[in-house]
Design goal:
Order of helices and strands: HHHHHHHEEHEHEHHEHHHH
CATH superfamily of the largest domain: CRAL-TRIO lipid binding domain
Pfam families: CRAL_TRIO
InterPro entries: CRAL-TRIO_dom, CRAL-TRIO_dom_sf
GO molecular function, one term: phosphatidylinositol bisphosphate binding
CATH architecture of the largest domain: 3-Layer(aba) Sandwich
Shape: globular
Oligomer: single chain
Protein name: CRAL-TRIO domain-containing protein
Largest sheet: 5 strands, mixed
Strand content: 5-15%
CATH topology of the largest domain: Phosphatidylinositol Transfer Protein Sec14p
Number of domains: 2
Helix content: 40-55%
Number of strands: 5
Distance between the termini: 59 Å
GO cellular component, one term: membrane
CATH class of the largest domain: Alpha Beta
Strand order of the largest sheet: 1-2-3-4-5
Length: 314
Amino acid sequence: MEEIECHPLLQITPETVKKVRQLCDIDDVKRINESLDIVEEWIKKQDHLAEGGSYLCRSLLERVYLLSKGSVEETKRRVERLLTSRGMMPELVMNRTVEEFEAQWEVVNYVPLPKLHPVDQSRVMVTQFLTEKLDPFSILTYFRYCFLIGEYRINYDYTTSERFVIDLTNIHLGLLSKLNPIVIKKAEVLCTEGIGTKIKGIHILNAPPFIDKLVFLLKQALREKVANRVHVHNSYEDLHKHIPRDMLPKDYGGDEQSVSKLCDQWKEQLRTEEAKKKIKSLEKMVSDESKRQTSKFNEEYMGMPGSFRKLTVD
């Protein structure tokens, strides 16, 4: 019988696995394993990917394969993008320790919800601002933590898409000065192009009076397809039309544990030796550009940060 490695804070069942595979048009375990064998052998033969690729565990590789709709060639392309883009954006994903986020935790919560969305099997991630005193908040540190959680989680999770709930309680105009559009754009590129995650929705709650300016800034930094999935909800009941109550925290009229309790569980988990070891191994998931035979990919993506539009907010 097939065994899927799971995590105590993520609810994954055999039925979940079946549904996700069906959504990706894949439901043949033998085909999955044979395809992953081919990809692993291919990685070993790529001089610039061999070392970094050796830290891609089988479960993570399977998630990439699912994102690729069962295409071996597309899986190879996504692996290439993952390892290369991580090396190009070290400020987002390198040299991280759990301890560096202690001050950030006093300002903002960020946590995956235990259950997957019943319709599209997406994982819902919640951001919750805890105080009006935003001085310790850094958008770069925030994204570093988001990617730490995401890259650690993807080793155990079984989904190809995510939704983001952003609670803007306690937010004031001072936040706008902390939102660097270039950092936001880089984060989106790494999330959708590097890791390959599909963003199903961005749901904003408890919007402040200046929400139009905030949404404008956010949308300018996102691709049009993702920007069109930004929703501002005027009530929790409106949110429930998109995300079922039974999977939402009590904070938002749901049945799940509070955001703070879920966050405490994740902090405790990330402080374990197992998690620290896994996080350390993530550092090595990068391509070795000195061994790449062609610079075509590098030229294409290194130009991206320099091509971003200059953004202004009135």
